[in-house]
Amino acid sequence: MTTDLSKKLIRTISSICILGTLTAAAAFAAGDPSISIDKELFSQAAISPAKLDEIYASQPAADPSAPSLTEQTGADAQAVSAADASVSTDDAAPAAKSTPADTPADTANTAADTADTADSTAAPAESAPPVTTPVYDLQTNHPDTPYMTKDGRPAGATIYTSGCCPVSVANILRNLCGITDATSENMCALATESGARYDGGTDPLKMLDAAAAKWGGFTYQYSNSMDELQQCLAEGGMALAHTSGASGGATGLFADNGHFVALVSGDASVITAVDPYWTETKWTANETRKANAVETETHGVVNVQTGAVGAACDYFYLIRKA
User: Fold this and answer.
1) How far from 193 is each of 44, 210, 242, CA to CA, in Å?
2) Which of 61, 41, 57 is nearest to 104 (CA)?
3) So what's the pLDDT on residue 69?
4) How far apart are CA 242 and CA 316, in angstroms?
5) What mean pLDDT do residues 58-65 have?
């Protein structure tokens, strides 16, 4: 019995240590907890202390689930060279590749514990609660991935220069609905195949129609109402937002030309946006951004004053999990 009790004690201590380590890693990857986005379907991981010998011998490493992507729509009219990757006047510096947000291992050691069968009265070990962390894609991570129409127009366009709509939709569907296949690359391919991709950008309605037909699991509604946007976010939904660049009292907030971003949470004061065309200097490049937005530690994630979002954006697609 002494040996059995020792094994139980080791199992308990090992489980606590593993859970603590993964929880700390998830918190680090998510950035500042005060700005983290709490959605119910992000990448999940569950740890079971079953098979003590396997867990004790080698703890599985975390498995990064997706790269970070960013994109600027309306940039198709401008050529992007390797030497100068700018797509708008205030995004002149080439975007630094952001580090993907790591997710914990999908599952670890879920089989029943067959090593300790001597004490049949032993209580089953408790599983650790899931650890969640958002995973964002940024188009700036894909300067060499083509994104053109079926006819190859505009020549040389990539996810970097032109992918803000599909990448923003990918960010929403992966994090809100748990559609892991909705990567930025897959979403861009779907836009091309469905005809949503055209010379000047991406048609968001055709994009969403194609995604709904392919995967399902969500609803979407066009709106130009801030009240409806705030209601959607308050209910746990997200929104694809479009700006023309020159809008109201927040000109140049998200971009100087046409651009899409994902709005992932918010209230009457602040809305959290994921800007797919993120660079090291973008959010300090003009006075509008300095006055109305604060970057977070997670690349691409920006907290923006709600009034400025309303002034800068001309329409939204409100997206809810079905």
Assistant:
1) 31, 9, 22
2) 61
3) 31
4) 6
5) 37
Ramachandran class of 201: left when φ > 0, alpha when ψ lies in -120 to 50, beta otherwise? left
Q: What is the mean pLDDT of residues 262-290?
A: 96
Q: Which amino acid is at 296?
A: T
What does the CA dihedral 158, 160, 163, 164 come to, rounded to 10 degrees? -170
- Please state which of the ranges 72-86, 220-234, 239-253, 279-293 shows the lowest mean pLDDT: 72-86
Whether 254 contacts 260, CB under 8 Å: no
202: which residues sit within 8 A by CB, 6+ positions away? Answer: 73, 162, 163, 164, 165, 166, 191, 196, 260
User: Hey, what's the torsion of the CAs at 102, 103, 109, 112, to 10 degrees?
Assistant: 170
Quickly count: other Cβ atoms within 10 Å of residue 314's Cβ: 14
Higher-pLDDT residue of 127 and 274 is 274
Give the β-pairing of 46-47 and 107-108: parallel
DSSP string, 89-150: TT--SPPPPPPP-----SEE--S---S--S-TTPPPPPPPPP--B-----GGG-TTSB---T
- pLDDT for 59 equals 37
Q: Would the pLDDT of 273 be above 80?
A: yes
The alpha carbon of residue 163 and the mean position of all alpha carbons in its chain are separated, in whole angstroms, by 14
- Indicate the angle between helix axes 164-177 and 184-194, nearest 10 degrees: 120
Q: What is the pLDDT of residue 132?
A: 59
pLDDT above 70: residue 206: yes
Residue 266: the pLDDT is 97
